[in-house]
Amino acid sequence: MHQVKIHAPQELGFANPVLLFWFPQQDGAVHEVHPGGWDDYGPVFQFTLRRNYFCFCFADRQGEKRVREKFIRCYGQHFGREIWTVARHEEIYPVRPEKPAGSTREVYEEIKGIAGKNLYLPDTDVSGKGAVSLLGAHYLLDGTTLFGFFHPRAARVYVVGNFNDWQSPYHPNPDPEKFLPMKLYRGYNDEPNIWLLRTALPDPADARKNLYKFLVVGGVPLNNEQRPVRMVQDPYARRYGPDYNTNNCQLIDPTVYLWKDGNWRTPPMDRLIIYELNVYGFTGEDPEIPEEIAGTFRGVTRRILDGYFNRLGVTALALMPTSEAPTALGPDRLGYDPCGFMTIERDFGTCDDFRALVDAAHRQGLAVIVDQVFNHTSNTFNPLWEIIHDGTPGGFYFNGETPWGNRVATEKDEVQNMLIDACKMFIREYHVDGFRFDATHSSWMDHNFLRRLAHEIKDTGFKPDCLLIAENLPNEPDLNLEGYNGYAQWCDPFHDKIKALLREGVFEDWTDDSPERLGSFFYFCRDFFAAHTNNVINYCESHDEHSVPYEVATAGAELSSEAAKERKSRLGLFATIVALGQPMIYMGQEFGVERPRNRIDLNWSELAKKSQYYEWARRLISLRRRYPGLRIYGYNPAEEGKFSWLIGPWLDEARGGGRRVIGWATRPGDAPWEEMVVLLNFEAFDVTVNLEFPRPGIWVRLADIDRVNDLPPEGDNSVHDPGAVAAWPEVVDFVLPSSSGFIFKWESPLEAQVVNVPG
Q1: Is the pTM of this model over 0.85?
Q2: Do domains 2-93 and 643-752 have the same CATH topology?
Q3: Which end of the chain is more exposed for a tag (fewer CB within 10 A), N or C?
Q4: Residue 622: pLDDT over 60
């Protein structure tokens, strides 16, 4: 026999409350208990039982009629003999739940002036009532630390850490003087759901005193002792501590780092030449990088400072995920299984190491784009899993599945806030220039969330020039309706078509090498999904795809020779650089590296043997940077007089009709020397065409598949070069060799010099 005392909240609002209880899988009899009294919390029900498990609910007795409350609750003896309930949900608690102490707005007004430069205090509001969340852990300028934690179902929450000996009422040897209880505040939607504590803590530089977690009482799954008490990680944690067994959160002071990029401005989208890299894979096997920093942020920073990316000519680094992931380091370590959205991967270095990388990049003229995986989280180590127990699989933060595991509930306002805050934090504390969002298919990620994210960051003035890139393989156009200010998208149609053309057949059973719609793929896929050239990121290699040499070798013996693989690889890179939209290359592509998809290791000793390929690629990229005619942008450059077709499969036979050839002319301004011509032949044989150049004169050949030679001061090309063409403006019987590409630039009138006519 044991006694049970159950407290019901005043918020029930019942005139004549009764408690109904029953024993599952018994006779189905329902027993009724009347209040034994009232306290300041509400009616109190007290009774004696022989069994230690039963179900109950509250009802309002109106004569002989009982009107049941919505929730059925289940009692187990492990909760204790005195329990509390709330009106909002089915939870029961071993302690009296906290009452809200006020609104987060009030706390924010007190501390907003002592946040410190480069510290982001989460301020995204879903309520429309100024409900600033203040979530996470933040060192303030007055020496205090603010802790914030979202949990709408907890009864009590404590901050525990090595600064208070991990003390709470549930410690084996509790010391009440060291307890750090949090107060409950009204936050999202003016509901009591945000817990805050402001207290004085030791120096953040002291690693012995900067580890913490939250201890949650109620609203979480039962622990190993069948108690509703659990220690959880902070979803807003910036880093986890060094112990991979405990994964304690680490307090970080982002204001200590002294930034040197004060004059930096994020470049516009049309100036991007993106280099995608994996932090570990890029320098993990680089003999020029000291072993102790190889495969880390510091290793990449070393390469930035020694000018590698400047020599290559790229303008932006797209870092594969930098957030904490539980997978082991190695050639397959991609990072697309995050266990936190604001954490920095411990294996890559410290938060300041990452800041130093971004700082160095900016001082070298490089933008930094961070890969955000918001569609799913790790199933191996997942701090968000059941952190808020609401009866659904995985709890509050999840809703359904993706091909890679759980699906993050991006349709929920509170989850949206967390993800938007993550982006704002990376902007404010790490100075990143933008984000690439993984797998944004509408079935896996709410597109209203993505549009809201763009609004919160760009339209509100937080970072109007933020670069936003979506991986949206179904090519849904709704993210691009804003055109110039909308999302850019990884252009999967371009990639698939190029791979099919290079394979001289079919790619992945869904794209063939037919000349149909060839023009659209190079004209920024305008009739597929894009509203503006800024909506398109063109690529033929990425971490998700085989490299071109590897891919074409799968097409048969004829394309398996080293010569064939290299020529196709060059043509793929050439096409990527010249197509309308923004080009992206994947690390190692500048050497024509051969690798399967999802392999990230670079053997720099082997790459050094391919210096000729690298030099060709470097010079090709430099042309894109130097000449506006290779960076044509706009809503419709053809209608604006900046772009015109010269050859293509949809034209007559003399101009490439029915064949896999394409060519165009560009005119970015009024000056004749700005005009350029681009030609591509994807056929496995020579194609002869008639070319009507847009202007009579001498057109210098700046590049082809074998050679790039710019005009002075970047090269020694001139109208005297054997590759130059004299156009009247038509050139008859111009030969496009198999698997070839050309870039021409108008340089002088015909009378200046007479040169050979190819044919």
Answers
A1: yes
A2: yes
A3: N
A4: yes
Q: How confident is the model at residue 201, as a pLDDT?
A: 87
522: closest CA among 477, 583, 603, 464? 583
Crossing angle (nearest 10°) for helices 492-503 and 562-578: 150
Domain spanning 104-250, CATH architecture: Sandwich (2.60)
> Are the CB atoms for 222 and 120 separated by under 8 Å?
no
DSSP secondary structure code for residue 578 in this structure? H
Q: How do residues 47-97 score in pLDDT, each as one tens digit?
A: 998 888 899 999 998 877 888 788 999 998 888 899 999 988 899 999 999
User: Other CB atoms closer than 10 Å to residue 683's CB: what's the count?
Assistant: 19
Nearest 5°: the CA angle 438, 442, 446 is 85
Q: What is the pLDDT of residue 69?
A: 83
* Predicted local distance difference test score (pLDDT) of residue 250: 95
User: In sequence order, what are the beta bridge partners of 666?
Assistant: 643, 676
**Which one is predicted more confidently, 28 or 404?**
404
Domain ranges in the chain? 2-93, 104-250, 269-375+410-564+577-582+592-609, 643-752
Question: Which residues neighbour 232 within 8 Å (Cβ) at sequence distance 6 or greater?
Answer: 213, 214, 215, 216, 220, 383, 387
Query: What is the DSSP pairing of strand 506-507 with strand 434-437?
Result: unpaired
The closest of 428, 538, 482 to 123, measured between CA atoms, is 428
Residue type at 111 in one-letter notation? I
Is CATH 3.40.30.10 the classification given to domain 269-375+410-564+577-582+592-609? no
Tokens read off for 274: 């993106």
CATH superfamily, region 643-752: Golgi alpha-mannosidase II (2.60.40.1180)
Is a pLDDT exceeding 90 seen at residue 335?
A: yes
- Identify the helix (H) or strand (E) that includes residue 580: none
Residue 183 clears pLDDT 50, i.e. is over it? yes
423/373 Cα distance (integer angstroms)? 11
